[in-house]
Amino acid sequence: MSKSLKLYGGTAVGAAALLAVAFNFADRNITPMPERADMMGEAPANPDLGFIAMARAASEPHGNYNLGRMALPEEIAAWDLDVTPDGTGLPEGSGDVLTGEEVFIEQCAVCHGDFAEGRGNWPKLAGGDGTLADKDPLKTVGSYWPYLSTVWDYVHRSMPFGAAQTLTADETYAITAYILYSNYLVEDDFVLSHENFLEVEMPNADGFIVDDREEAEAHFWNTEACMSDCKDSVEITMRAAVLDVTPEEEEEAAAEPAAAEEVEMAAAETEEAAAEPAAEETAALNPELVAAGEKLFRQCQACHQVGDGAKNRVGPQLNGVMGRTIGGVEDFRYSKTMAAMGEEGQVWDEESMAAFLADPRGYVKGTKMSYRGLKKDEDIAAMTEYLKSFSN
Amino acid sequence: MTADKKSSGASRRAFLKGAVAAGGAVAGAGMARAAGDPDPLITEVQDWASGFGEGVDATPYGLPIRFEDDVVRRNVEWLTADTISSINFTPIHALDGTITPQGCAFERHHSGAIELKKEDYRLMINGLVDKPLIFNYADLERFPRENHVYFCECAANTGMEWAGAQLNGAQFTHGMIHNMEYSGVPLRRLLEEAGLDTAGDLKDKWVYVEGADASSNGRSIPMDKALDDCLVAFKANGEALRKEHGYPVRLVVPGWEGNMWVKWLRRVEVMDGPVESREETSKYTDTLEDGTSRKWTWEMDAKSVVTSPSPQSPIAHGAGPLVITGLAWSGRGAITRVDVSTDGGKNWQQARLAKEGESKALSRFYLDIDWDGSEMLLQSRAHDETGYVQPTKAQLREVRGENSIYHNNCIQTWWVKESGEAENVEVS
Known about the structure:
The complex is a heterodimer of chains A (about 400) and B (about 425). In chain A, about 40% of the residues lie in helices and about 5% in strands. By secondary structure, chain A is mainly alpha-helical. Chain A has a two-stranded antiparallel ribbon. The model of chain B is unreliable at about 1-15 and about 20-30 (pLDDT under 50). The longest helix of chain B is centred in the N-terminal third of the chain and has 20 residues, at about 1-20. Chain B has a five-stranded mixed β-sheet. In chain B, strands 6, 7, 10, 11 and 12 form a five-stranded antiparallel β-sheet that branches. In chain B, strands 19-18-22-23-24 form a five-stranded antiparallel β-sheet, with no helix packed on it. Helix content of chain B is about 15%, strand content about 30%. In chain B, a hairpin with a 7-residue loop joins strand 8 and strand 9 (about 220). Classes of the chains: A mainly alpha (about 400), B alpha+beta (about 425).
């Protein structure tokens, strides 16, 4: 309170003037809404407002309604992080390509690939130069993005996926430098900083035009819509069924109703079969811990699947992971260390799982898992309990 | 739970196939009686006409009856790498009227649907304002409020169809849309509360809006639009927004692409230029045939689609009276007219609008025909109050090529066969 008094005490004098400004605005925007005058009587009359609250309210009058409060400078600093093409918003700092490569491999490569080439359906960040007019353009930072500020801003505020806002300014400069390097836009000794940021030229900077639909597509307006005999013949030129990429309500979708019934019965049987052992298991599990673990697991979902029909994704599927040999899912390419641990016969038990979850890269050197780990013991216990609920 | 869903899906499909296969003559057990025999559903006392149904409070918050459990959002798995950053589709083929129930309105997340309590909610207005302000949820509820119905369409709706007919179902081709009645505070009112004198001439000013989730999904909006009809909404269809639609507060940007409707709205910054964020440069820009790309294509062009009959909603009753129905909308204003063709665009007739078109909201149209049971190539064509007429895919491709991804508002064709089944096709 005293802080806000200090900060905004000086503004009390300007209160009347500001209200006048506010009225001005209300006048300029025709509105059927209640006028401030209607509300004037109510606000100060609240008997619950103590002296300090009154003083604080008086110290920062604003707008038509005097609702909300002044934002503190440190609050604005915490949230106002956006960076614009002219570099406004960039903090001081720097990072080089080689550091960027290290951070990228640790933090980004799990989805974007070691060379920013993208894995699976995840975005490719490099390549595609000169493909924008092709049948299938490859849009990457190098081939498409018009401003480098966008890369820095997005990496800094929204990446890594599942751990946004954890990168330092220097790490962000380094990653940005590495992405430029992956696109052959800088050499391997390049250092990106707030000072040389605007010197980087983005290849597709001039590749954009502002929406011109009203000119380029003016013929879609005020056309006399033909109502009869609009064309001589109509032929089907393409059918969706030929490509057939429509998701079925279930994969085993059968053409014959009889087969569909079988599927239905099979589904019912699986359900019954699954129901019994599940009941036994839950008796031994702590449901609160499982629930807490389920929430925590959201951080893992980007890479790991667990439960019915779980498949390997970026990470292996986790059904029955507790009690499983480390590195034990067939068809999944583990890191060398993880595979070796399995060959030695090591198993995921409470102890090994806790050690891994607490410090993934410390426990399994060179693990592909890009995850910082869980700091709290109770979180580790919850996650473990949750994973146990998917025992085979 | 999952298995249960699956089995009901299978039976639904079996029902559809069965009904269609029978040529429409038979539809449901009640009709299985021999001609002339009385209907046992009428002549025999049924359980529900004798015993009890559920008491009040059986379901404190009601869900649709179980017979409708196939009317749900659906995902197209191959579209995205992960459901956390993905989209699903409104089952428009199975809905009527214009208001989309929240529970089946499509979702689009960039880093998952977060849980944000009202108590933890803060909205910051900063940048070129006289006084940077923080509002909590209770503050927002004290501003004079407005109600408006608007559609929200993802810019990528129908985007998979640019290069050819791909997905068999109106849900998948046109389901990245919903239409709700929003209650909230005009953004203008909040900006005025912070004061815009500092911003000087408002003509070339922008606001940057961002969400509280990890993706933050920031977008730049010209001040004109921000002061015109943008709404800071906290209720939809009378109740709190759903988590997946930005609870407790989202931004409504009427008529403009859904990506700008920032969910979990946490900050509005008045700026003297656009941020050129990831969502307005690398995404949501439309690449033309020559490789240049349009940016700031905010308005959603006029568009329409027949929702039934359609691939997921085949004709099950055979020849005779048939209700052809669909939706039409325009980001530039109200729908004034919809034409329907049953022969692939050779001849058109004007459909009936269920009510006069509302600006930037869905319109429902009907064409009631006496179907002779022969094949149809069903199309619809929307007209809006600016005089815009919905183009064919060929007309669009002529200007935009096939790589736009976004803003595909072409005329859609369903090939309805004699059996009543329908398929997504392209025609000459």
